[in-house]
Design a protein that fits this description.
The complex is a heterodimer of chains A (117) and B (113). With 117 residues, chain A is mostly beta strands. In chain A, 0% of the residues lie in helices and 55% in strands. Chain A contains no helices and eleven strands. Chain A is globular and about 40 Å long. The termini of chain A are far apart. With 113 residues, chain B is an all-beta fold. Chain B has strands at 4-5, 10-14, 19-25, 32-38, 45-51, 56-59, 62-67, 72-77, 86-94, 97-103, 107-112. In chain B, the strands form two sheets. In chain B, strands 2, 4, 5, 9, 10 and 11 form a six-stranded mixed β-sheet that branches. In chain B, strands 1-3-8-7-6 form a five-stranded antiparallel β-sheet, with no helix packed on it. In chain B, a hairpin with a 2-residue loop joins strand 9 and strand 10. The chains are: A mainly beta (117), B mainly beta (113). The A-B interface holds A 4, 6, 31, 35, 40-45, 48, 50, 55-56, 58, 90, 92, 94, 97-99, 102-111 and B 2, 4, 9, 32, 34, 36, 41-46, 49, 89, 91, 93, 95-106.
């Protein structure tokens, strides 16, 4: 089993749809992240969860709603998105989001390619 | 405002030669830097890191150099191999706040056989 698994790998949705992206990590990590990668742009941090608590919301519009029911699972609920939200959404995990022993290494999933029509 | 910049979107190098990927940052508070490698249809994978207390870190064919005064880091790959062809991202953070990594926009490296 790969360390961080994302489903679905590809998603096409209309602007009025509601869909969810799912992320699962099998690494025993305590921190999980959502990043957005648009073409030719840097990876943008969206949300951080540390021990199931949201510790970072990087000014993300409310049409993106994260959910972290436990340290192994992370969801991104999508509602009334815009075409400019089309991007690759990457989930990542790390040992935890702080701490002296943390190397800072993020383990990424393969991403969910979202297209909003 | 982009705090980490990779000004070369692409780089082409002959197999066996050196690849040098560059990264600049603006925030002097950054004290920890990482390089990630990304193949198509895969997520980024960690390659090498460096703390600001060092100016060089080496791991096999990969060496990262940090110039704090210039706020510049570079990744050297020697010798380059066709399997190194990928997009390389640099990232920066503050050690006490791994909540937030700032990434560059990536450099696509093509190593020609």
């Amino acid at each position: 089993e790969t360390g961080v698994t994302q489903t679905p790998r590809h998603l096409v949705m209309g602007m009025t749809n509601k869909k969810s992206l799912k992320c699962e990590q099998h690494l025993g990590h305590n921190a999980m992240y959502w990043y957005k990668q648009s073409a030719k742009k840097p990876l943008e941090l969206m949300f951080v969860y540390n021990f199931k608590e949201q510790t970072e919301n990087n000014s993300v519009p409310s049409r993106f709603s994260p959910e972290c029911p436990n340290s192994s699972h992370l969801f991104l609920h999508l509602h009334t998105l815009q075409p400019e939200d089309s991007a690759l959404y990457l989930c990542a995990s790390s040992q935890d989001a702080s701490g002296a022993l943390n190397t800072g290494e993020l383990f990424f999933g393969e991403g969910s390619r979202l297209t909003v029509l | 405002d982009q705090q980490v910049k990779q000004n070369s979107p692409s780089l082409s190098v002959q197999e066996g030669r050196i690849s040098i990927l560059n990264c600049d940052y603006t925030n002097s508070m950054f004290d920890y830097f990482l390089w990630y490698k990304k193949y198509p249809a895969e997520g980024p994978t960690f390659l090498i890191s460096i703390s600001s207390i060092k100016d060089k870190n080496e791991d096999g064919r990969f060496t990262v150099f940090l110039n704090k005064s210039a706020k510049h880091l570079s990744l050297h790959i020697v010798p380059s191999q066709p399997g190194d062809s990928a997009v390389y991202f640099c990232a920066a953070s503050v050690v006490n706040n791994f909540n937030k990594f700032y990434f560059g926009s990536g450099t696509k490296l093509n190593v020609k056989p």
